[in-house]
């Protein structure tokens, strides 16, 4: 479009003035570009912002005080419009230390309105404007300077069209009385993205944790806790420390010497030199754990008696509720979300329930629809 003009905010005062204008408008469109290939925490490379008649780029690598933007993100009186903004919100929360408030995610809105389920940004722009965006710049290095004109134009478009589409989505949601559903879902996504996983629960995110026995599970808990703490401290991806499969193999083998550790697949000699002693120390701690302090198991549900039949009933229940809302069943509850309820009802004791987030299908707007019937269906087993 011919009016896609933009400017850089090159000074703290310019950013403060823009944030004041955003408060007056009551909303702003927001996107970020970042790099996360070799770090645990995403590295912010660019911030794109738009309000009516203004499109700006903010370079976080320049010496600009970002606090006025952070305060704006936490202002509940100003709507922050994003598209599939989970990673953006997680990054901005990590950068600012503040919880984003009053977020409107256009991908969620499009799903609720039946425009497209988990619709990508380019597809949404094509739907509303019949414009095909060039996405060739999405994988470029956003930390390199100077930015190319192609990078700048690509980045500006992400906030520009979002600002144009937002009023249309708001009108449709208002007409169909769907605003509260979108608001509830956006709030849930913020809570999930800004939640910090306790170190001692990190083992539960390993896909094959069911393979370990009781004492081995204590070893796996120590190993996963050590790995997460190390990844955060060194700002490295978890897999750069030790891969998931290797953690499982080390725990199952109850490995307590460097030679045995060297026989584990995916354990590079450099990894052993750097972390070998710490890995062995974690395994030994697990082996010394008293039986009554070992965390409850997370069995593989496919092996549990009655699971398949009950899963079909739970899946049908989700579909029925989705049909009533006139939204996709996958939006109400995915297979993973249904399985989280099975684990919660069957294998999580009361003490652990106080520490874990409540499953999606038992909380918020989903819980209002499904909690009673799901808990009746999945009565704790003796």
Could you walk me through the main structural features you see in this protein, from its secondary elements to its overall organization?
This protein has helices at residues 12-25, 67-73, 86-96, 106-113, 121-129, 149-175, 179-193, 214-234, 238-241, 244-253, 258-262, 269-287, 307-325, 329-332, 335-347, 350-353, 364-377, and strands at residues 7-9, 27-35, 43-51, 54-58, 79-82, 103-105. It is of the alpha/beta class and 382 residues long. It has a 6-stranded mixed β-sheet with strand order 1-4-3-2-5-6, sandwiched between helices. α3 links the parallel β5 and β6 (103-105). The longest helix has 27 residues, at 149-175. The N and C termini lie far apart (64 Å). Keywords: Cytoplasm, Exonuclease, Hydrolase, Nuclease, tRNA processing. It holds the Pfam family HRDC. GO terms for molecular function: 3'-5' exonuclease activity; nucleic acid binding; nucleotide binding; ribonuclease D activity. It comes from Aliidiomarina minuta.
Helix content: 40-55%
CATH topology of the largest domain: Nucleotidyltransferase, domain 5
- List the helices and strands in order: EHEEEHEHEHHHHHHHHHHHHHH
Mean pLDDT: 96
Secondary structure: number of strands: 6
CATH superfamily of the largest domain: Ribonuclease H-like superfamily/Ribonuclease H
How many separate structural domains?
3
CATH class of the largest domain: Alpha Beta
* Distance between the ends: 64 Å
